[in-house]
Amino acid sequence: MGVLPRPAARRLRGAGAAVSDLYARHKAVLPDWLALYYEDPIEITHGEGRHVWDAQGNRYLDFFGGILTTMTAHALPEVTKAVSEQAGRIIHTSTLYLNRPMVDLAERIAQLSGIPDARVFFTTSGTEANDTALLLATAHRRSNQILAMRNSYHGRSFSAVGITGNKGWSPTSLSPLQTLYVHGGVRTRGPYADLGDAEFIAACVDDLKDLLGHVRPPAALIAEPIQGVGGFTAPPDGLYAAFREVLDQHGILWIADEVQTGWGRTGEHFWGWQAHASAGPPDMLTFAKGIGNGMSIGGVVARAEIMNCLDSNSISTFGGSPITMAAGLANLTYLLEHDLQGNARRVGGLLGERLRAISVPLDYVREVRGRGLMIGVELVRPGTDEAYPEGAAAVLEAARQDGLLIGKGGGHNTSVLRIAPPLSLTVAEAEEGAAILEHALRCIQ
Q1: d(C-alpha 228, C-alpha 164), whole Å
Q2: How far apart are CA 60 and CA 404, in angstroms?
Q3: d(CA 27, CA 63)
Q4: Which residue pairs, CB below 8 angstroms and at least 24 apart, start in 410-413?
């Protein structure tokens, strides 16, 4: 691959009095558990393309996109225009009235979902989307038992926290649901890590069968095709198809949580579930984040018989608002017309290979994994297989100093750098980001 050039030295301006004052005000009025990145948190004021600027005028290459939300580009003119024009007409009506942009976007998503006779319900976030899917599944199946994956994350609401298999993001064990956790979401750790892919799938299926032999049939399995907050981990292709065959025998629904994997981010597929498609599409899929390119859009797609199972009235005050739907339509159109899925496959493949080459001599990089522009770099303490959270924090800081924003995550005993730029990332920007990451990784030696 050759040696990547060291990034040009940058002199980032310090936090300054205004940002320090904002940080003090933040701490005085917002919850202590509201996480912030960096020892000196930054205030991002504006962006363009794949770059953002902070309040001090520092420019950063954005490899995290507001937690995988800025999917196409910052300040994308097509989205900005759609939002501006809709705001000039009307911003809000609620679902009590017919809403043309909502119907237009629902029709496109239903067709793209792969789910037959699909119905779409819009929410304001991925958390709310998953909460709605749980409501539908439990009502349809008349059961409050849910199967979820170990190391999973599904949102911040009371019900979503109750099915999250990642203790770092699950502050309470209290829940309206009875959750049973299944093996398989993490390929390279756990009791089956040393098995080949086929044997790994077989072992996980046997575990699922054994679990179902001990309980009444649950309502549904909810699973991220690639676990996001858990560190971009994934099972071998076909695991959820094999699970589906078992679930169908018991009438158990399959919910694919596509909040982070949807819309072509993995490059190989438009939806993450398509890597497990031999048993057909899921009964429901949830989406959010990238479709709004920063606007608050989430939603559920489900077969009509499931979506229509509720026997009481319901509305959404803010879900499907005219202004967010206009943004989603413009963003989805741009994504499809410019083949950003293909770009994620090509540029993401290049970036992944660069990062693997960089990591070969670094004994604290355990694994570089992921697909498309959804890449995880797992760090361990040198000479061990243990998490290295201090190392991950140090890389985050060093990358920021050189003008690159990345994320971090991980589950049980893991620490992972999360890399997920907008899908319009160029080859030159991928090379620049890889060079900065190489320098940042070497800073912790």
Answers
A1: 12
A2: 5
A3: 26
A4: 410/168, 410/230, 410/231, 410/378, 411/150, 411/151, 411/165, 411/166, 411/168, 411/186, 411/227, 411/229, 411/230, 411/231, 411/233, 412/150, 412/151, 412/166, 412/167, 412/189, 413/189, 413/386, 413/387
- Count of residues for the chain? 445
Per DSSP, what are the bridge partners of residue 382? none
Amino acid identity, residue 386?
A: E
Written as six digits, the tokens of 211 are 């679990």
Residues whose CB falls within 8 Å of the CB of residue 60, separated by 6 or more in sequence, listed in order: 51, 52, 53, 54, 400, 403, 404, 405
Cβ-proximal residues to 249 (8 Å cutoff; 6+ apart), any chain: none
pLDDT at 13: 67
The end-to-end CA distance of the chain, in Å, is 22
Please write the tens of the pLDDT for every residue from 175-222: 889 999 999 999 999 999 999 999 999 999 999 999 999 999 999 999
DSSP string, 292-338: GBTB--EEEEEEHHHHTT--S----SSTT-HHHHHHHHHHHHHHHHT
* Close Cβ partners of 305 (under 8 Å, ≥ 6 residues apart): 117, 140
* Residue 442, φ and ψ in degrees, nearest 5: -70, -20
Q: SS3 of 46, please?
A: strand
Q: Rounded to an integer, what distance in angstroms lies between the CA atom of residue 322 and that of residue 341?
A: 26
| 328 DSSP β-pair partners | none
Helices (H), 142-188: 158-162
Q: Decide if pLDDT at 156 tops 90.
A: no
Nearest Cα to Cα of residue 299 among 36, 106, 64: 106
Query: What is the DSSP pairing of strand 178-182 with strand 145-149?
Result: parallel
pLDDT band at 1 (very low <50, low <70, confident <90, very high): very low
Tell me the mean pLDDT in the region 412-418.
Answer: 94
> Are residues 244 and 251 in contact, defined by beta-carbon separation less than 8 angstroms?
no
Q: What value, to the nearest 5°, has the Cα angle with vertex 418 and ends 200 and 264?
A: 75
Instruction: Report CA-CA distances (Å) from 201 to 42, 205, 221, 279, 415.
Output: 43, 6, 16, 14, 25
Displacement of CA 121 from its chain's centroid (Å): 19
